Amino acid sequence: MPQDSNIFLSLGKPVKDEYGRRIGEVVSFAVKPNGGIEHVYIRCSDGNFVKYPIGNMKFDGSEVVYISSIKTETAMFCDQIPLIWRKDQALKELYEKKKISPEIYEDLHNSFEGALNQLKTEAQVLLERIEKEIERCNSEIKELNYALVHLEVEHEIGEIDDPSYHMAFSAIQECLKRANAEKADLEGLRSKLSNILLGETVQEPFAKGTVEAPAPAPSSLPEPPVIVYVKEAGESSI
Q1: Which end of the chain is more exposed for a tag (fewer CB within 10 A), N or C?
Q2: Are 157 and 220 in contact (CB under 8 A)?
Q3: CA 181, 185, 187: angle at the middle one, nearest 5?
Q4: What does pTM read for this prediction?
C-alpha cells in the first residue's frame, strides 16, 4: 500500500475492524531503515499492545481500519495459485512447440508443481481457519439471539423499564448486524478459496475492502480445468 508522512497523523487515532468494532488506538510504527513502515503498534482496549503488518491496515483520513489476515491471505492465494498454474501451462506449450529442451522443461515444471502444491497445502490450512471463524460467528449469533429473548422476557414482565430496554435492544441488534456481516464475508471467502482449490479461476472482484482477483488468462492459454461435482440423492452440502 502507498506510504507517506500522512500516515503518522494517525497516531492516537482509534482503530476499528471492518465491521466497526473498536480494537484500540495507534501508538507507534515500526519503520525500516529505508523509511518504509513495516508494522503498526496498537494499544488495545484491554490495555495490551499488539502490532499488525502495515498491509493489514487501511488509512482513510481520520479513520484507521484493520483488515483481517484471513482476507489478505485469501486474496494472495486466489492470485498466486491460478498464476502459477498458467505459467506451468505456458511452459508446457513451449515444450510441445520444441522451444525448450526436455531437461529444462522437466526442471521448471517440477519447480512450478512444487510451488503450486505448497500453496494449495497452505490454502487448505487457511480454509480450515475460515471454517472455525464461521463457527465462531454462528455461536456469537446464537448467543446474541438468546440475549435478545431474555431481554424481551424481562421487559415484558416489567423488570426492565422502557429506556433501558431500548438501549439494550439497539446494542444487541448492532452486534447481530456486525456478526452476520462478518459471517457473510467469511462464507464468501470460503467459496472463493474452495473454487481455487478445485481448479477454478476466480473472475469476480472480492467484496469491498479486499484485493481484487487476478485478470483472466490470455486467450492463448487454456483456462484451468473446472471440476463439476454431481450431488447424489440424500447427500448434504456444506
Answers
A1: C
A2: no
A3: 115
A4: 0.74
Q: How many residues does the chain have?
A: 238
Helices assigned H by DSSP within the chain: 69-96, 102-156, 162-197
**Contacting residues for 228 by C-beta, under 8 A, at least 6 apart:** none
Looking up cell 474452495 gives: 194
| Terminal-to-terminal C-alpha distance of the chain | 35
130 within 8 A of 190, measured Cβ to Cβ: yes
Q: Which residues of 203-233 are buried (b: 16+ CB within 10 A; e: fewer)?
A: eeebeeebbebbeebeeeeebbeeeeeeeee
Do the beta carbons of residue 18 and residue 56 sit within 8 Å?
A: no
What is the rounded distance in angstroms from the CA atom of residue 23 to the CA atom of residue 180? 19
Helix (H/G/I), strand (E/B), else coil: 41 = strand
Sign of torsion over alpha carbons 127, 129, 132, 137? negative
Interstrand relation of 37-44 and 57-60 (parallel, antiparallel or unpaired) = unpaired
Q: What is the pLDDT of residues 36-59, one digit of tens each?
A: 899 999 999 888 999 999 999 998
pLDDT tens track for 93-119: 999 999 999 999 999 999 999 999 999
